[in-house]
Amino acid sequence: MNQGGTARWLEKLSNGLTSAGWDSVLVAGEVGADEVEDPCFEELCGIKINTLGKGKGLINDFRAFFQLRKIIRQLDPDVVNTHTSKAGVIGRLAAASTFTPRPRIIHTYHGHLLYGYFSKPVTRTITIIEKCMSALTNRFIVAGKTVRDELILSGVGSIDQYSVVKPGIDSRDKLDPEVARKQFGISKDSLVVGWMGRFENIKSPLRVVELAINFPCIIFLMAGDGSRFDEINSKAPANLLLPGWCDPNEIWSASDIALLTSENEALPIALIEAGLAGIPAVAENVGAVSEVVGHKKSGFLCNSFEERVKALALLIEDSQLRNQMGENARKFCLSEFSEQKFTQNHIQAYLGVLSK
Question: What is the phi/psi pair of residue 346, to 5°?
């Protein structure tokens, strides 16, 4: 439950299920030493499994399996809905091993590890594991159609096993831009490019540094934290600000353009939040990003440094284009990413596996 999009997803899901009359229990491992646990985990009274986490070793993975198995037996749930890679594998194995009565098993892919994360041999191994796990999984939930199609193409499950559930994001009133900028020490007349996420390799934060160097008169506001924070901080030019984790509404209220530089993504919640704030985006054309950003409608989809520079230059120079694309983004995100749809689509998936 490190800070980021998955934590936001689980917070919305847990609260939505409770409001709809369902009982749900959140179980998670420990965050890495270079990460921060999201405050919502404690607010949701989550159960912590100390042996579950990145780099804890095979012995601790076995311990986590038996701890999860014990919890599942005690709670006797109708559905176990797992999330993320390692927890998804261990959680599904634990649920399947409870035998009678075995809960229905659903796994949510917030993205996937099929490219952008590891070497080809490691990626092949992960793909084989996911193919095997699909035999234990009653249903998959994915954030976007592109992620679903890439998984099926790799042999993970069949199309009738998948439900597409788009994130549910609450639309908040945008703050006064001048007030939002003041807390970051940015003048009201500056043009601001915002970025929000984890400072990890998969998010390619160094690309933001490259763009900030290329646009020295533009302020780049880079919110978040992670293992590469110190490196980025040491390389950051004067026009690149790193305030750490912040309220998304503060970041996007202070920004004119949203930036996403990831090597791989599902449906990026940061861009949905930016879209709801009426901010056009310049984003990498990976994963299901194209299901959030309409190319040349609500922003630009890019595949290279040159394309990023060109797209940013167009939006920086043309305020009318920024406003039009920002309004297109706002209308689209309002219609597609409602909290009510998000909860109801999960409930529909749960009831679907329970009826079989």
Answer: -65, -45
What's the chain's Rg over C-alpha atoms? 21
Q: Whole-angstrom Cα distance, residue 73 to residue 102?
A: 9
Here the tokens at position 301 are 């989809």
* From-to residues of CATH 3.40.50.2000 in the chain: 5-168+339-354, 177-336
Q: What is the pLDDT of residues 117-172, one digit of tens each?
A: 567 787 788 888 889 999 999 999 998 888 888 889 888 989 999 999 988 887 77
Cα–chain center distance at 279: 18
Select from 155, 106, 30 the least CA-distant residue to 349.
Answer: 106
The answer to whether 136 touches 107, Cβ cutoff 8 Å, is no
- pLDDT one-digit tens code per residue, 176-197: 999 999 999 999 999 999 999 9
How high is the pLDDT of residue 210? Answer: 97
HSE, side-chain direction, 13 A CA sphere, residue 352: 16
Distance, CA of 275 to CA of 279 (rounded, Å): 5
Among 270, 259, 264, which Cα is nearest to 208's?
259
pLDDT in the model for residue 117: 56
The rounded distance, in Å, linking the Cα atoms of 350 and 356 is 11
Per-residue pLDDT tens digits for 11-21: 999 999 999 99
* Cβ-contact 167, 143 below 8 angstroms: yes
Give the DSSP H or E segment for 131: helix 120-134
How far is 328 from 300, CA to CA, in rounded Å?
A: 13
> What fold is seen in the domain 177-336?
Rossmann fold (3.40.50)
Domain 5-168+339-354: give its CATH code.
Answer: 3.40.50.2000
- Segments in the chain forming alpha helices (H): 5-19, 40-43, 58-75, 85-96, 120-134, 145-153, 177-182, 206-214, 229-235, 248-254, 269-276, 305-317, 319-336, 339-354
Element (H, E) at 356: none
Structure tokens at 235: 């390389």
Q: Which of 131, 113, 98 is nearest to 54 (CA)?
A: 113
DSSP 161: G
User: Does the pLDDT at position 115 exceed 70?
Assistant: no
